[in-house]
Amino acid sequence: MSRGYLIRRLLAIILVLAIVTLAVFAITTILPGNAAIMILGEYATPDAVAALERQLHLDQPWYMQYLSWVAGILHGDFGTSLRLSQPVTQVVGEAFLNSAMLALTALAAVIIVAIPLGVLAALKRGTVIDLAIGLFSYLGTALPEFVTATLLLVFLAAPNVGPFPAGGFVAPWEDLAGFAAHVILPAATLGLILLAHVSRQVRSEMSEVLASDYVRAARLKGLSERRVIWRHTLPNSLAPAVAVISLDIGYLLGGIIVVEEIFAWPGLGRVLMYALENRDLPVIQAVTLLLAAIYALSNLVSDIIIAKLDPRVRYA
Amino acid sequence: MRRFLSSPSAVVGTTLLVLVLFAALFGPLIAPYDPQEFHPLARLQGPSASYWLGTDQFGRDLLSRILSGAPATIAFGVFSTTIGVVVGSLIGVIAGVSSGWVDSTIMRILDGLLAVPDLLFTLLIVTVLGGGMEHALLAVAVAFTPGMARIARSAVLSVRTRDYVRAAVARGESGLYIVGREVLPNALSPIVVEATIRVSFAIMIGATLGFLGLGAQPPSTEWGLMVSEARQFMFRNPWCVAIPGLSIATAALGFNLFGDALRDALDPRRSH
Amino acid sequence: MTKFMLTRRNVVMGLAATALVPGLDLQDALAAATPKPGGTLRISHSTRIATLNVLNCSGPAEYPAVDMLYSGLTRMGPDNKPMADLAQRWEASADAKTFTFHLREGITFHDGSPCTADDVVATYQAILSPDIPAAARSVLNMIDKIEAVDPTTVKITLASPFADLPISTAHPNARILSKAALAGPREKLDTTVNGTGPFKLETYDSARMVRLVKNENYFIKGKPYLDAVELYLFPDLAAESANFLNGAMDVMLTVQQADFQRIAASSGIKAQRIPSGRFVNITMRQDQKPFDDVRVRKALAMSIDRPTLVDIVLEGLGRPAYDNLLSPEFQYAIQTPEIPYDPASAKKLLAEAGYPDGIKIKLVASNRPAIRAQVAVAVKEMAKAAGFDIDVETMSHDTYLANIWMKGQFYMGYWGMQATEDATFNLLLTSNASYEDTGWKNKEFDQLVSDARQTTDTEKRRDLYAKAQELMLRDTPYIVPIFEDVLTASGKSVEDWTTAPLSGYFYVENVWLNKA
């Protein structure tokens, strides 16, 4: 893992972000229809559309719009949302914070639940417990988020039935208990798929390590079973789990789009969907940029962690 | 084959897959009703003798709609994955075989494209193209391409140094012959395994796009769209959400289990 | 049918009588209980409040927000008649060309500055300026001159006589802004408010919640009763209804037809259905085949089972329509003859028109709101028997607006109820209507509508509008299959929540919470 490699990876990320934004920008502006038409909707008259296009600078050619957008970014100015007339940094910033809280809650829950489940399944391999955990994880991966979310809503948040609020958001600094109540169902929906991935990964690695000479040697040395598992097996099984978790961040970033829509969570996914529906280009660009950057960086970090944990992996 | 079927997940996976593929091939033929036909007097009913799985908000027979939607839903998964796999594998094989600057350029670009999460990537492409089933299919294929290319490349790299390839090179065979006859067949299994599992992702992404209003459009009987149209009515007839939801899960589970079992069978090292 | 409609009308009128008619200062004489001041009303809605710019907002949840924040010269009551708002009274000249509006004394904006005739003039000039996107321009474009006679008197001179001007001035997008706000940067109107309405803006977070607080200086003394109103966004309808039913929300702004029975049946919930002239229409371009032939249009009209459509698409919460753009609520609406579902005759008519083998055609529907595609899919099934082979293509709303709307040959429209006959016809049907998308362009019809506009005599108007409707029904420029009821619901402790059949009027200043 040389410094040169790191710099090259980072440069590649920046290059790709530039290409992605340019492509999104060009194609969105070339297509018929624009934010002005969407804002005015069916009550638009040609006059009003033309006036609004002038006001939003949509009457300029797309490459000029792109260049001024890039120039703005270099000055730290991401522009103004066409639809909401608010600075993009404000619209996206708040949403990012909300999404991050949701995603991190889901991730933490997954780590707390999935790793013990995986360990349990590996230790009880071939038993009913293993089978049950396996079935549960398979089901988790096979249900799309919108189905899971709907089921949770019907069974855990229906009026007079469920103990949980059916969507909505309370900021944790206003009311921590309220935040916790509201975050449970969306985080559970997001977590279910990850739970399956991570627990299966831990189970499979753990089984492999348990069968290895190294563990056999530890057992022959007469170490207690508990010590064999917690000190020798588990740490060696975790590296691949780290890799899976970092890859799953990509899942999370996609998953929030559906989950936030259903549970009325005011996050990035909602902002993105709304911006896409309304051709709100500055917002689309900022969200794409942000999500792609998070994903690319988390991949890079996971590569670094894996290289550190597993000396066999080498990066030129 | 017998070894393959000895694992329970392979048996379950194969059974589900056969079921789903049967529905996809013959579903529209065996559907008891016209899937679009209204029965205004039998709206939102539970399962009964005349409507085995119940009816939706227009009184359309759910069983017929599921059966007629199977080809669209499954074909979406299979075709989008196939396109992604073929294009991705070609790119990956080219990168793996050529090495040098071609390889590193391709890999840099792929690394970059992989920086955009699947669903986000698909969403962007679909919005840009304007929604609809064909565009969604294309979008999923495009989104799958970089990942498949990466897998194909590493499969090729691992085969490239094997003895039989070296032998072919020593015999003086042409590059095309070596790739076509020696490298590709031997690099195929990880690609096939990955592709099978990806079909289940593709089906789920397709359904999610249908749910978000960007994939299949009414009056299509694509399963994701069926869930999203029926959600309003779920308190009055839970069946019209549960049935297509379970169908999606069955299809995804079938491909997923089958793919996993295939991997275990082809790669004994990982068969735990 | 007729009898049924009459009962419905009685229901509306009954509703208007028992509910408080805002602005008429009934002083709660009719209300059973004395309103209690205080409390916060939580309203749920499912579409974003993307802007608070009163000049061009059009979202279903933006309307109640600007209705609470701003006031107009006049306002439409639940009875569909103009009532006093900023203008206490008004008079028209005999030729209906000059109108004088008298403002209330001592009205102030939320920032404390006085609201005078100058602000009214500035607002109307902005609405009429082609450089400013303003949704009310199409109903006010007959204004020739507007001037401030003194701080509380506004004189409006029209280019052509128009007796219904006080209805146009009640347009939800014609509410009065301050002159200073109009002179400032226009983007600020999207996120900040300085109005004269019963509530002031406190928090604007379009992704989650908009909070309004009581305007202590509202021009009707003693109102509003509520301390605050919070508008919460729930993009998912299932989540919205669950939150309403478990008491997290007090009012559900719009109830879906699918959920209405369930919600109405829940204990303590007051669910309301208000018959409205909101309709779905099928646009058929008449300057090209096959809809150039009136027989084809008539055949399609006969191929739609309208009562069944009301049952399956609206869950019975609406009324069948028979191609008249005017619902029975309109003053001059005629008795529209029913069109029975008769695919056999339709098939014959198609053969006469030269299509013995039927017609294969694509019907386009936007995916927002879902009712467009639902009606399209139902029409496809119903018209099959008559020989129409309709292929429904649903597309995203942005693609629809850009490629199909006002351009396509055969597509689904969806319109809210307009305040007047004149507004309805000039929206869609006259040759120079704002959204003339059929190519019908009938000179005789244009003349009738224009004559009716300039007439102040009620009977003469009735006659002219009747002739115009007969002409429309003779040619079937549009197919209008259903009128949709407006559905809303309020929780146990909410008193006097009402909405009007016209979108845009909510009278929240009368609402109070009956909490022990």
Notes on the structure:
The complex is a heterotrimer of chains A (about 325), B (about 270) and C (about 525). With about 325 residues, chain A is mostly helical. Chain A has twelve helices and no strands. In chain A, helix 7 (about 145-155) packs across helix 8. Chain A has two domains: about 5-75, no CATH class; about 95-310, Orthogonal Bundle (MetI-like fold). Chain B is elongated, with a radius of gyration of 22 Å. Chain C is about 30% helix and about 20% strand. In chain C, a hairpin with a 5-residue loop joins strand 4 and strand 5 (about 100-105). Chain C starts with a helix and ends with a strand. At the A-B interface, helix 1, helix 6, helix 7, helix 8 and helix 10 of A face helix 3, helix 4, helix 7, helix 8 and helix 9 of B.
Provide key terms for this protein.
heterotrimer, A: 316 residues, mainly alpha, MetI-like fold, 2 domains, 12 helices, B: 272 residues, elongated, cell membrane (chain A), MetI-like (chain A), transport (chain A)
| Bulk shape of chain A | globular
Number of strands of chain A: 0
Q: What coarse outline of chain C follows from CA principal-axis ratios? A: globular
User: Main interface pair?
Assistant: A-C, 51 and 47 residues
Count of DSSP strands of chain C: 19
Helical content band of chain A: over 70%
**SSE series of chain A:** HHHHHHHHHHHH
Per CATH, what is the topology of the largest domain in chain C?
Dipeptide-binding Protein, domain 3
Oligomer status: heterotrimer
The main sheet of chain C comes to: 9 strands, mixed
Which topology of the largest domain in chain A does CATH recognise?
MetI-like fold
pLDDT below 50 for ≥5 consecutive residues: which ranges of chain C? 1-31
CATH superfamily of the largest domain in chain A: MetI-like
Low-confidence stretches of chain A: none
**Treating each run of at least 4 consecutive H or I residues as one helix, how many helices of chain A?**
12
Structural class of chain C: alpha+beta
Radius of gyration of chain A, CA atoms, in whole angstroms: 24 Å
Mean pLDDT of chain A: 80
Tell me, rounded to a whole number, the average pLDDT of chain C: 89
Report helical residue fraction of chain C. Answer: 25-40%
